[in-house]
Write a structure and sequence with these properties.
- The complex is a heterotetramer, with two copies of chain A (341 residues) and two copies of chain B (385 residues).
- Chain A has helices at 7-23, 44-49, 68-80, 86-99, 103-110, 198-227, 239-268, 273-298, 300-303, 310-322, 327-335; strands at residues 116-121, 131-138, 145-150, 153-158, 166-168, 177-185, 189-192, 229-230, 233-234.
- Chain A is of the alpha+beta class and 341 residues long.
- Chain B has three domains: 7-117, Orthogonal Bundle (Butyryl-Coa Dehydrogenase, subunit A, domain 1), CATH 1.10.540; 123-232, Butyryl-CoA Dehydrogenase, subunit A, domain 2; 247-380, Butyryl-CoA Dehydrogenase, subunit A, domain 3 (Up-down Bundle), CATH 1.20.140.10.
- Chain B has eleven helices and eight strands.
- In chain B, the strands form two sheets. In chain B, strands 1-4-5-8 form a four-stranded mixed sheet. In chain B, strands 2-3-7-6 form a four-stranded antiparallel sheet, with no helix packed on it.
- In chain B, helix 4 runs antiparallel to helix 5 (106-117).
- Classes of the chains: A alpha+beta (341), B alpha+beta (385).
- Chains B and D meet through helix 8 of B and helix 8 of D.
């Protein structure tokens, strides 16, 4: 038993961190007067080259042959750098393509050519071999495909399946958002939860990404508290600020430990994996939302401006909360499960 | 202890209600820019023409000179009528004018007060500086006397709507050698003076939403005639303003929030069903919020009761401010849980998401919740500094 | 409109405060090694003499002819001094006796001779002209009568109606507690909620008492924070403690303002009284519970001992919470009402 | 990253489970007094006889000398078996003995360690003083050297179970002139010595519940041979103890709480119905607690992973302690909401109300949550003091 990354995993982590901090600094999202949309898709080919788009895919499918533990190391860094959540579409679509033996699509994904958006339910939907319902399409405007999932399973659709999608400004304005609708539509690929653990994997990946958000907000607050002076000393020396930062550190640690635990459980399979994946998603999005809000407060008026990155973490945390079901529905699901002692 | 309004008060309430019913602008208030400025000034002018501008202003300055109870009634009716906030005029009506009344000279009063009251001008506040937010008295924007002018150099920040304002209440350091509270002066700054430059600061609510500014002053020459109170006595002048700010002007906001909450209750009933709401975590939180918003009204009434007869707002008022600023955030937050995933959308007509994002400022503006709780601990409970 | 006490009301407040602080200091509950039960019934004749047992009764019924606003001033002081909640039995029984024209009982109450306990439902009960169900009897061991109430109305029973009551140690060990049961029992007096506002009055009186608890806990914490030194200065100068005390002050103010508002609304009658009484009960018991817990924390290890009074406020706050329905049921009731703007 | 236990570990787990299954005392543990002492000593003796005493102790001192992973397995199985806490022996096993191992001389080790391990003696801790709780280094209990003895005068407080203990780890000030961390010594105090008097301190859980004591020392003569480490070097000796306390010994408590929570979930399902629980505020809170208790286990595993190979517990362990102390309170609190009005009762067999009341100590004992958050802010995040 060891929850720390092994040397190979540390290498992956280091590579992800150094690539992303060089190629995708958070400042890229801070143009002069606010911005709609982002250019993160330009990163996909480079991430592909580094193997990050096929981390969890078997080598036979063009992947690296690793699994969820390695993927969460990457996703934590993706969260820290606020990379477009469209990457989750790539990861999930690759798994779908691999399981349904679609080498052309697989190749397009693993090479970084494909664009895959996310389709997240607006209210109750039916997802299965025949699918219907209202969806939000996230980061799908320039994508040919979109991935959707519920507890029942995961599906890949053509974005045109969603009809005349309607553009809407997203609270997180660096993401494209559309409303779309499926009417008795057959997905290009459908894998039920019984046949594959994609929904659970999605939850753990979101948890890792959200942990990255929570950690970045914590670090941003602590760094500011060390340098910002009021009343002749750094604000971090005041207990009100110090304890606020300490609470952020606790939440981030809680989120990461549970995410690691869940990643290993899901990778190993077994009956408790659903429980731990749900707990991870719940704790990590909770940490991301709370830490983002606290970070704004620590920054004072500056935290309320678009000049600061503080709001970016808050908005992305809300997106992560709604992806795969918000805190309320996560809790409802978790209390319905058997104990996992 | 009673909630009985006098016949006179009830008549006043009826009059206010009738006037508001006939005169409140029905279109949506533009949320920024010149359109917002024009809207707010026009609505102020309409109130002035109707005899309703400056309910708290003494009659000698053209105000209505209402007792606190009738001010309360006015703000209750104002909020219930759905009248717009007119936030652009807040600084002029509730900071600058009361300060000029209290500490200004006759020329300053005669020139500025009517313009403010009639909705001819907008004011902004030049207090906070990049390195001094909570610690206001540490400000460093410098002014030296040169003949009959102050020459100002430095920078102010978080000046709401400076880009839409004609005048500014400006705090400057006129004696750097004095103890920090003793070398400050309070001046009226014409925003068209040469040497003033603005840097717009966008806020987090939505892309391109311009609200704050940083203001840079380079050799800006303000006539000494525009100093309110004595040179170097500006801290005490500013404190009289802050006292007023924390007075009755926020009443309508407190009352308005009760209406906001009931919209949320209606939405939750529709989404979850009235029966299911009882023990649902959303229903339980809404019930708590209902009780808390009821208490905000009770606290407002208590503050009015304590202050009636001319007493100043006690430090107990700080309890309500601290409570209300956090209550606003809780109220705005639950909207997202009720709406669900459509909260990701920022629609053009948006009663919920932008206001939610905006609510992050309530525990920062006008004293962070940390500073407010210091004040409560020290002034209300007598704890050591 | 004026929510401050008028001069007559200030007199009542002063009289209550000076009598109780002299005759019933909280130290009376601090014997050497913990104690079961209390001797507060000895105060009833003296309180009667001062008119406090008939404050809200018409003069024709031997009372003072005042109302709920005066009673909450008294009850706040009763809460501060942790007077036995049996006093609520006296107040409610007097109203029941007055409305049913029972001069003998009325006289026994108003003179301070009678002992009246409280009967509080354990789960769902039927209260009405024929009543059934399981109850807790509080402070009823030496009482001939016990008052019970629900949203449907209020009733006076003989304690023997509850069968062979079973003694149980109460979490708040200064109170006697028994389990009892009514089997299709006719109360001595029954007044439905439609015929009288006793349930609402009870809620407001509990709110006032609970506000007294919240205020006493706040004062105890602030006083201690001024004198207790650690690291060479009073702990009240540390923000962690200062802000904790500030939060206690906010909660107590919230509770008191709403309680006063509710008392006037109930006294005036009208459709919004139920809403405001419920809000007051909810906020005041919440404040009492939170402030009591915070007060223990401020006192550190000392706060965890029986040598400190801190735990007394916590335990009494729990009793007040369960009297008339706990926070959970108060909230369920409040969200079911129409808006009261 | 893996959760794979080796075959050896799995064999160890099976062995531990089997032994616990056969040997855990089945009757209820007395909650105080000599009966509790006898119970705890007997259970310790049984573990010793079975070869399970001192799982973390090195084999040279008669312990089992387990690697951290196997300690974790032992504590998991211990908690799942329902084995009693044996809190009376906590100080001896987890504070005093490790300190003596680290800093004691051979005579001290030979005399005390076997007695502790075999369940022959109980120890208490004489650290806190009436005026020094959070500020431990400010202690003032004085000891002067007189020949080959320390002569101790002063008072200690919050000494859990001093009335049931044979020995005490005692911190005294031996050089009042030195800086406060430099004049302290760590001594082994025989609780039967003349001049020691106890004042029982009752705790809030129930009437007459004796747990704490104040201990008064009047000219108590402790042989210098009982000083552990050097005279005036007691602060560093004490710090090594505290480090150990925060080690593995609390694992079983963390694991036990998961079991407690599941009892609450079962109670809630029974009272409210499984379906109704989903969005009920109680169900939502329980789900949050489930996730948090899962995380506590994950955090424990992470701490073990970080420390494996002999590394010290990092300051990250302080995150788990601060989190868990508050989580205990939240877990205990929800019991009352589930039980409802019967929470007013303190029955003789009481799995919920006394533990709830007792949980108020979790954010006070072993460092208040305020002090813990100072430590996190300063040592984990590097914020200024």
């Amino acid at each position: 038993m060891n929850l720390l990354p092994n040397p190979e995993q540390v290498q992956i982590l280091d590579a992800a961190r150094s690539f992303l901090s060089a190629e995708a600094p958070v400042e890229r999202l801070r143009p002069q007067h606010g911005q709609i949309g982002n250019h993160d898709a330009r990163l996909w080919p480079e991430l592909a080259e580094l193997g990050f788009l096929g981390l969890g895919l078997a080598e036979a499918h063009g992947g690296v042959g690793l699994g969820l533990p390695e993927e969460i190391l990457l996703y934590r860094e993706l969260g820290r750098q606020l990379i477009s959540p469209a990457i989750l579409g790539l990861t999930l679509a690759a798994l779908l393509a691999a399981r349904s033996d679609d080498p052309a699509l697989l190749n397009a994904i693993v090479s970084g050519e494909a664009r895959i958006g996310l389709a997240t339910p607006r209210g109750a939907v039916t997802l299965g071999p025949v699918s219907s319902g209202a969806f939000h399409l996230i980061e799908a405007r320039e994508a040919a495909w979109a991935v959707a999932w519920t507890d029942d399973g995961a599906a890949l659709f053509r974005t045109e399946d969603f009809g005349a999608a309607e553009d809407i400004l997203c609270m997180d304005s660096h993401l494209t958002l559309e409303r779309g609708r499926l009417e008795a539509c057959e997905p290009a690929i459908w894998i039920s939860a019984a046949d594959g653990d994609l929904p659970r994997r999605a939850q753990v990946l979101i948890a890792a990404y959200a942990t990255g958000l929570a950690e970045a907000a914590r670090d941003m607050a602590a760094d500011y508290a060390k340098i910002r002076q009021q009343f002749g000393k750094p604000i971090g020396s005041f207990q009100a600020v110090k304890h606020r930062c300490a609470d952020m550190a606790i939440l981030a640690e809680v989120a990461w430990c549970q995410t690691v635990f869940a990643a290993v459980m899901v990778q190993n399979g077994g009956p408790k994996a659903t429980y731990h994946a749900g707990a991870a998603k719940l704790l990590a999005t909770d940490a991301a939302l709370k830490n983002a809000a606290q970070n704004i407060q620590v920054h004072g008026a500056f935290g309320f401006t678009a000049d600061s990155d503080a709001h970016l973490y808050l908005k992305r945390a809300h997106v992560m909360d709604f992806l795969g079901g918000d805190l309320r529905s996560q809790k409802a699901a978790l209390i319905g499960l058997a104990a996992a002692l | 202890m009673n909630l009985d309004f006098t016949a006179e008060d009830e008549a006043f309430r009826a009059e206010a209600r009738a006037w508001l019913n006939d005169n409140v602008p029905r279109g949506p208030r533009p949320t920024e820019g010149q359109a917002m400025r024009a809207f707010d000034l026009a609505w102020q002018r309409a109130q002035y023409d109707g005899g309703w501008a400056g309910v708290s202003w003494p009659t000698e300055y053209g105000g209505r000179g209402l007792e606190l109870t009738q001010q309360l009634i006015w703000y209750e009716e104002y909020a219930r009528s759905g009248a717009p906030e007119a936030a652009l005029l807040f600084v002029g009506m509730n900071h600058a004018a009361p300060t000029i009344m209290a500490r200004g000279n006759e020329a300053q009063k005669a020139f500025h007060l009517p313009k403010i009251l009639k909705g001819e001008v907008a004011w902004s506040q030049g207090f906070s500086e990049p390195n001094n937010g909570s610690d206001l008295a540490g400000l460093t924007t410098k002014a030296v006397i040169d003949g009959d002018h102050l020459v100002v150099n430095g920078s102010k920040i978080w000046t709401s709507n400076a880009h839409l304002s004609d005048w500014q209440e400006l705090l400057v350091r006129t004696d750097p050698a004095a103890p920090k509270h003793k070398g400050i002066s309070w001046a009226i700054c014409d925003m068209t003076l040469p040497g003033i430059e603005l840097r717009p600061i966008m806020i987090m609510t939505a892309p391109g939403h311009h609200h704050f500014n940083q203001v840079f002053y380079t050799d800006v020459r303000i006539p000494l005639a525009n100093v309110v109170g004595e040179i170097n006595d500006g801290w005490s002048v500013a404190m009289s303003t802050l006292g007023f700010e924390r007075g009755t002007a926020s009443m309508s906001e407190q009352i308005r929030y009760g209406v906001v909450l009931e919209k949320l209750v209606d939405m939750a009933r529709e989404r979850l069903g009235e029966a299911a709401l009882k023990y649902d975590e959303i229903g339980q939180r809404l019930a708590q919020l209902r009780a808390e918003h009821a208490a905000v009204r009770a606290m407002t009434y208590m503050i009015v009761s304590r202050s009636a007869g001319g007493g100043a707002m006690g430090s107990e008022a700080s309890l309500m401010r601290a409570f209300f600023s956090q209550l606003q955030q809780r109220t705005r937050r639950i909207a997202l849980d009720i709406i669900g995933s459509d909260s990701l959308e920022l629609p053009d007509v948006d009663p919920w998401i932008r206001p939610y994002l905006r609510s992050f400022s309530t525990t920062i503006a006008a004293g962070t919740s940390e500073i407010q709780r210091n004040i409560i601990g020290e002034r209300v409970l007598g704890l050591p500094r």
